[in-house]
Amino acid sequence: VYARGAMVLGQSLKNHNTSKKLVALIGPQVSEPCQSVLKRIYDEVRVVDVLDSGDTAHLALMKRPELGVTFTKLHCWTLTHYSKCVFLDADILVLSNIDELFDREELSAAPDPGWPDCFNSGVFVFCPSMETYGKLLQYCIEHGSFDGGDQGVLNGFFSNWATADISKHLPFIYNLSSIAIYTYLPAFKQYGGNAKVVHFLGKTKPWSYTFDPKAKQITGSVEKATTHPTFLLDWWSLYSSAVVPMLQEQYGDKPFHSGCVEVSEHICLIGPSESVSSHDQALQPQLSSEERKQKWEQGQADYMGMDSFDNIKKKLDTFLK
User: Fold this and answer.
1) Is it the case that residue 221 has pLDDT exceeding 80?
2) In sequence order, which residues have a C-beta less than 8 Å from that of residue 261 and are 6 or more positions away?
3) 129-149: average pLDDT
4) Where is the stretch described as Disordered (predicted)?
5) Helix (H) or strand (E) segment spanning residue 234
6) Which has the higher per-residue pLDDT, 213 or 120?
7) Is 161 exposed, middle or buried (0-12, 13-18, 19+ CB in 10 A)?
8) How many whole angstroms separate alpha carbon 279 and alpha carbon 298?
9) Residue 163 lies in a domain
10) Same domain for 207 and 162
11) Same domain membership, residue 224 and residue 91
12) pTM, whole model, 2 decimals?
């Protein structure tokens, strides 16, 4: 399913007239039709397999098997036929041209919303180098990852990012976390219009929903909604208009689930407006105060419904009056 994200990401970069080459790193499990579509969008599609015994990552994997996905990502440093690259996770949508990132040096990245002294590894500027690649693998073997993934490894390796050089701190607009928007909504209202890259962090991705192209409506579980509706609609509009036709062409008569469906009767999670209707809220299961408290503590507040910024503001206004 991440291949869909990579297709949308590549198409969004092309739509905003990037002058740079596009490279997709994929695992060997990606289907032939998906590989064909990726090859139409990207200049280079490279299969990365850390289980290949000829790869130095294979030896590292034997000592740290829990970091398999991390080793796959680190392969970007082996793209030594390029002098400088910008890495982008597949769950990202580019909103405008970002070629200026190539003026930055390794390792440039934006702060992570969960711990701003760490950078988020969904977007970073780096210089391919087999020497750096080897050192990263060695670091993995010796230290592992403090969060179990690539972000922990990269922050451990580039440990002086937070303090050494402010020019390597990318503005948040280059890696706007979709789930961070609601933790500081006034800032999003002030600066969100300048966003260049939106990152769909969290378990629920855009492709977790379904989309009605005619009605321009997204359907799915309201409880899962942690992404600003405008960005979800942007993702689905691009996917349904540009990517789905290419997939249909490749799959031919073979069935595949595009996620685009015309629904005559459904609960609308997100339409063109930015709020959930009272009718939708009425259909949501009512939680007790204790259950709501538990969800808040787990980071699962109902940002689109009962716990929306507007509803919280109304409650505060009532108390203040």
Assistant:
1) no
2) 210, 211, 212
3) 95
4) 280-299
5) helix 229-238
6) 120
7) buried
8) 26
9) yes
10) no
11) no
12) 0.80
CA distance to 51, 175, 257, per residue, from 254 (Å): 30, 37, 10
- Closest by CA to 125, choosing from 140, 147, 146, 103, is 103
Work out the pLDDT band at 181, boundaries 50, 70, 90: confident
pLDDT at res. 120: 97
Contact indicator for 210, 219 with CB cutoff of 8 Å? yes
Give the whole-angstrom CA distance, residue 168 versus residue 158.
Answer: 11
Q: Is the domain of 119 the same as that of 233?
A: no
Tokens of 135: 């050192």
Give me the chain's average pLDDT, please: 86
d(CA 200, CA 175): 10
**Residue among 214, 207, 206, 209 nearest 262 (CA):** 214
Task: Summarize the chain as % helix, strand, coil (round to 5).
Answer: 45, 15, 40
Rounded to 5 degrees, what angle do the CA atoms 128, 129, 132 make? 115
* CA-to-CA separations, 27 to 3, 43, 48, 49, 246, in angstroms, rounded: 10, 17, 5, 6, 20
- Closest by Cα among 313, 306, 314, 308 to 283: 306
pLDDT in tens, 59-96: 898 889 988 889 999 999 999 999 999 999 999 999 99
Say if CB 170 and CB 116 are below 8 A apart: no
Beta-strand relationship, 115-126 and 85-88? antiparallel
Calpha distance 59→79 (Å, rounded): 20
Which residue do the tokens 């789905």 mark?
244
| DSSP E strand boundaries for the chain | 23-26, 44-47, 85-88, 92-94, 108-112, 115-126, 176-177, 197-199, 210-212, 217-219
Q: Which residue has the tokens 């109304």?
A: 314
CB proximity list for 190: less than 8 A, separation 6 or greater: none
> How many domains are there within the chain?
2
Domain extent, residue 262, equals: 203-320
Residues 46, 115, single domain; the answer is yes
> Which residues 6+ apart lie within 8 Å of 207 measured at CB?
1, 4, 5, 239, 259
